[in-house]
Amino acid sequence: MTKQDAIKAFGSGAALARALGITRGAVSLWPTELDQARIDRVRGAALRLGKQVPGAAQHLGGGHPHA
Fold it and tell me: Is residue 26 part of a domain?
């Protein structure tokens, strides 16, 4: 997931930052390609707030049953 994908899912960098409990400045310092820890935080916030993020369905069990 890219930083731009995450921002787009929340509508703005400020909204993403609020959802994660961090500053806009912190989001602006993120790399273009997010590491797994940031992806997990973004997906968690998206799930909590009912937002759609790229790739979330496949990684959150979207149709893939777990044993």
Answer: yes
pTM of the predicted structure, to 2 decimals: 0.80
CATH classification of the domain holding 40: 1.10.260.40
Confidence of residue 63 (pLDDT cuts 50, 70, 90): very low
Residue that is written with structure tokens 């273009």 in the block: 32
Nearest-angstrom CA–CA distance, 27 and 65: 34
Q: What domain count does the chain have?
A: 1
CA distances from 64 to 3, 7, 57 (A): 26, 27, 9
Please choose, from the candidates 53, 1, 49, the residue with its C-alpha nearest in 3D space to the C-alpha of residue 21. 49
